[in-house]
Write a structure and sequence with these properties.
The chain is α/β, with parallel strands linked by helices. The protein has 13 helices and 16 strands. The protein folds into two domains: 2-257, Aspartate Aminotransferase, domain 2 (3-Layer(aba) Sandwich); 260-383, Aspartate Aminotransferase, domain 1. Strand 5, helix 6 and strand 6 (153-157) form a beta-alpha-beta unit. The two termini are 25 Å apart. The model has no long low-confidence stretch (mean pLDDT 97).
Length: 385
């Protein structure tokens, strides 16, 4: 089976983790701080806060921005459920903004129209969460301009996008957002096994997220009430969580991030080769890169009307050892959100995309021979008869 995604773990990665296992720290310690600094430097942000998952990082980001009951959070339906669920975990309400038909990122025109309607009805969002789908940045400058006009905060769901660039700056630099959140799951660009990272240029937001990830507890003498009686002293200021990353995970991340540019370059090469090899098949390929650089976490094709049904193509590819996947089932069609009144027909662009989408294998160690097998198998299925 050729999977749609696969991590690479080198001997350097293993040695880094083993070194931690021989040290005095296994849980959150100096390696976490080292990884946070390396990550912040990589995306040109002032601060980075690590956690045990991107879902946790989204939850921390929303809470740090004061999202809670009675607030409205908007996000696109083409994402994993965690983007919306993290808002529900804060007690907030969720609504969806349809995607651009070419990129499947949040559609700025759809957002503007929805904001105008919400202003009239008094239901404007407090937070908008654009998703950098497949590693391609949303039009963040346009979204930020709307944020200033309609007074909402912005968190970038950059789970797919470490190593991507927008307007010549790394995604995560937060020029057009309050916080950006990344995933470090094994199928992503770099991995810590499980893990998440939030970047920001706001020291107060970084401090808030760091406190909330550790039970709401602080040992910082500048934050406790009065002189601490001893080094053992700590105070709980808020109801927080155990969302900490371990030093073992952080050591793996610090080792992996050294290869970030190599991973992105290899993903670009694979994407460019797919573009050439798939040109005559009954499908649409991802839009070409312009001035912005995608991280190419995913390579998603969409079947055209003259192709066999998606379910048939998907099943046959899996049967022949090609581990394709679909990203994603539109969040608003999930039963949990159906119970809130959302359903089929609400987001027509997202729903049309979903009916046609298949993610092909995409990972840095994908060989040319394996890629040839993927394309030949897909071609056989799409052109038979």
């Amino acid at each position: 089976m050729i999977p749609y995604g696969r991590q690479e773990v080198t001997q350097d990665d293993i040695d880094a983790v083993v070194d931690v296992m021989k040290s005095n720290f296994l849980t959150q310690g100096p390696e976490v701080e080292r990884f946070e600094r390396a990550f912040a430097d990589a995306v040109q942000a002032q601060h980075a806060v690590a956690s045990n998952s991107a879902t946790s990082s989204l939850h921390l980001a929303y809470l740090a921005l004061g999202i809670g009951p009675g607030d409205m959070v908007w996000t696109p339906p083409i994402s994993f459920v965690a983007t919306a669920n993290a808002a529900r975990m804060c007690g907030a309400d969720v609504d969806f903004v349809d995607v651009d038909p070419d990129t499947q990122c949040m559609c700025v025109d759809a957002l503007r129209i929805k904001l105008d309607a919400a202003k009239s009805s008094g239901t404007l969002p407090k937070l908008v969460v654009p998703v950098h789908f497949t590693g391609r940045s949303c039009d963040m400058a346009a979204i930020a301009a709307l944020g200033h006009e309609y007074n909402f905060r912005i968190v970038e769901d950059a789970a797919h996008a470490i190593g991507a660039a927008y307007q010549s700056k790394p995604v995560g630099a937060c020029e057009f957002s309050d916080i950006a959140v990344f995933s470090l799951h094994p199928v992503k660009i770099i991995t810590t096994g499980e893990g998440g990272m939030a970047t920001t240029n706001d020291a107060d937001l970084a401090s808030k997220m760091a406190t909330l990830r550790t039970h709401g507890v602080t040992r910082d003498p500048a934050l406790v009430a009065g002189p601490p009686p001893g080094d053992w002293y700590y105070e709980q200021h808020e109801l927080g969580f155990n969302y900490r990353m371990t030093d073992m995970q952080a050591a793996l991340g610090s080792s992996q991030i050294k290869r970030l540019s190599d991973y992105i370059q290899r993903r670009r090469e694979i994407a460019a080769r797919y573009d050439k090899m798939l040109v005559k098949l009954p499908l649409s390929r991802p839009p070409v890169e312009t001035n912005d650089l995608s991280a190419w976490h995913l390579y998603v094709i969409r079947l055209t009307d003259d192709a066999p049904p998606r379910a048939e193509v998907f099943a046959e590819l899996r049967k022949r050892g090609i581990g394709v996947q679909v990203h994603y089932i539109p969040v608003h069609t999930q039963p949990y959100y159906n119970d809130m009144g959302f359903g089929a027909g609400d987001m027509p662009v997202s729903e049309d995309y979903y009916e046609r989408a298949i993610s092909l294998p995409m990972f840095p160690t994908l060989t040319k021979a394996d890629q040839d097998t993927v394309v030949q198998t897909l071609s056989d299925i799409l052109t038979r008869g």
